[in-house]
Prior knowledge:
The complex is a heterodimer of chains A (221) and B (222).
Chain A: E1 6-10, H1 17-25, E2 31-35, H2 38-46, E3 57-60, E4 63-66, H3 68-78, H4 86-107, H5 117-143, H6 155-170, H7 179-189, H8 192-197, H9 213-220
Parallel strand pairs in A: 1-2
Antiparallel strand pairs in A: 1-3, 3-4
Helix pairs in contact in A: 1-3, 1-6, 4-5, 4-6, 6-7
Chain B: E1 6-9, H1 17-25, E2 31-34, H2 38-46, E3 57-60, E4 63-66, H3 68-78, H4 86-108, H5 114-143, H6 155-170, H7 179-189, H8 192-197, H9 210-220
Parallel strand pairs in B: 1-2
Antiparallel strand pairs in B: 1-3, 3-4
Helix pairs in contact in B: 1-3, 1-6, 4-5, 4-6, 5-7, 6-7
Amino acid sequence: MSGKPRLHYVNARGRMEPIRWLLAAAGVEFEEAFLETKDDLKKLQTNGDLLFQQVPMVEIDGMKMVQTRAILSYIAGKYNLYGKDLKERALIDMYVEGLADLNELITSNFFQPADKKEEHLATVMDKATTRYFPVYEKVLKGHGQDFLVGNKLSRADVQLLEIILLVEESKPDILAKFPLLQSFKAKTSNIPNIKKFLQPGSQRKLPLQEKDIPRLMQIFH
Amino acid sequence: MAGKPKLYYFDGRGKMESIRWLLAAAGVEFEEKFLETREQYEKLLQSGSLLFQQVPLVEIDGMKMVQTRAILNYIAGKYNLYGKDLKERAWIDMYVEGTTDLMGMIMQLPLQSAEMREKNLALIIERAKTRYFPVYEKALKDHGHDYLVGNKFSWADIQLLEAILMVEECKPDILSAFPQLQAFKGRISNIPTIKKFLQPGSQRKPPADDKYIANVRKIFNI
Lengths: 221, 222
């Protein structure tokens, strides 16, 4: 029996957000079961639903998939967002892994000690503008196409948009020196499935608030 | 022009080791260029070869590939070690991500203080015994095949062996409660390409020692 994919996670972005983005971009409707207490997590663990006792977990096509990368690769492959051959997939993977690194850097800011946060954030913004965004700007400039790889929408484009928006939440003018990323952002945001996901009321989650952290930590620790 | 893949990294395991394992298991000969000084590293940075200014870098099939997972995915796909369809790939990915997490914990140890190292070592042993190895033990028990996925040798098997040996370096009797994994270890170690890689003189690297750590710190100014 195949129904909609069902996402098991907390009601927050965390490690599930790229998965929500990719499903939404692929036009796939999905359900969400939110963990609200530690007991909710324990229940999944004791039921044997979590291969390595961890979430994210996505019920999809008869599997209880875990491990963010595995889930993203499966969805990308299934919905033709992973390039047409091994070499395109290699490029997509490189771009996506770079974005994942930047994402980790940004989200790790929350867990920095209060007196180190500002400095850490400045370092992260510096990396965004000197290590990561120039790469994608150059790729787009190099081929002059709308999408990063193979002149076709792929998971790399979806993830790049996600990260651009995330970084802009900390520094709204971060794309000032990246004209091609600016037009990439505009064009990609207008793709119907993505435009819908960017509207209020979608399943896209809000930025993490300080006040949410104790509740979330309590579930996982 | 197709030549042998060329690996750029330190003369140590780090993030390159899983790539060495996969190439070796696939029977692919490869060359290595070791970064031994800060100057060599800076030269590589300036050459524009490093997409995100980081190693590992693998020159393969005309590409300068970076990002460990991208490189591993490509090699696995190219040499038919990635299952026969999307669903087998999903299982291989899940299994590989688990062993990657476990090995990642071990990789951090040499960089930590003695106190943190002791604490984390205990955690690694506990996780290996209660979170990770039971999964692979059960998978093998349930289907009774020699290999984790699809009754065929895959990347998941190679990485599991790598993880088992790495944990055994921390605790030699770690497999005492895992008979399937013991048999698995014996079988996979005997596959000719892997057997060769496990012999002295191969390109397999030893565990990190103080000298290696000091060199890495020097090259990265940390």
